[in-house]
Give the backbone structure.
Amino acid sequence: MSTVLPGQPMRVLSGMRPTGRLHLGHYHGVLKNWLKLQTEYECYFFVADWHALTTHYEDTRVIEESVWDMVVDWLAVGIDPNSATLFIQSRVPQHAELHVLLSMITPVSWLERVPTYKDQQIQLQERDLSTYGFLGYPLLQSADILSYRAGLVPVGEDQVAHVELTREVARRFNHLYGREPDYEIRAEEAIKKMGKKNAKLYRELRTAYMERGDREALETARALLERQKNIALGDKDRLFGFLEGGGKIILPEPQALLTQASKMPGLDGRKMSKSYDNVISLRESTDEVAKKLRTMPTDPARVHRSDPGNPDKCPVWDFHVVYSDAERKDWVQKGCRSAGIGCLECKQPIIDTVLAELKPIQERAAEFLRDPLTIKNVIADGTKRAQEAAEATLTDVRAAMGLGYS
Ligand code: TRP
Ligand code: SF4
């Protein structure tokens, strides 16, 4: 979609639940993507500790233990606090306030039909998830996103429905509260602030869209608004809404930025995931990494060294797909099928590559662990910035909902 979004199109927001150690699956599936995004956008990355509580309210210890480790691992892989704002969700109470305000206008049925609601209850049978907090999980996520008026939300496939819900809630909010009583007058005044030439162009484009449904005119008008430097954000929101005959857009609709599903295989051939107990964590010791890889299963047909094998039936091959160049892949294919190489021989370059990948990460993690004050400062600083950004949104939200009395 090429639509220019009102609000903060260049702002990215994403969170991660602190429910255990980060592993190679997180690194290849999520963090490498964050590393790229932080150079391109204004990024907000946070530890979603409240979200972790929705499923782990009975054993909060793992959350407590994971929060700071998560921040250390983010920094260790290269997330840069000078470029991205890093914070902990529960330190920014504006998320909770927006959650409660949005809960007033969100039909229960919208939450019940989010696919993860039923799926997770089935998958996590051992936990009692018939709670109010768990039903509200995606709405809390909406509050996370909308608190920053984020334009882009990098998520995996399973979370797209949550961004979709966010869009619906934002739309409903704007519909209910975006219509100020003197709306038309304010819009007219805002148009004048653009200067004669731009004001004329805006009016023409708006007419073209409103009277003839000219989508191109709508796009052009949005781009025109994006470029305006001299009008306040409130006026800009008003004019975005006015273009389509609606009211002021207080909470812009975000877009999901679909993160390619992680190709990182686990030690057993399934996707790497803590719940399958098949992970290599980012802090795993050299010995432990070597041992886990040496003992991981291979093609069961290769009982003896002299038995030829088939890489397609071997989880080690999946690691070669991630880590090896064409030449080495060819060496595996030929060597395996002809029994020219043994399985340990085949695994050795993987062990070397994984260790080489983890080495600088672990060195940096060790540095940060020796200096906990730096970590606390990074979060204190990020939290302050996050609070300010969220408070700006909440000020508008409170006013729009009639809570602006002083
Ligand atoms: N629900 C997300 C997950 O499990 C984590 C999350 C919480 C999140 N709030 C968010 C992701 C806001 C993106 C935006 O992965
Ligand atoms: Fe798997 Fe390599 Fe052994 Fe073939 S040689 S079965 S690809 S570990």
Observations:
- The two ends are 41 Å apart (CA to CA).
- The first helix runs from residue 24 to 40.
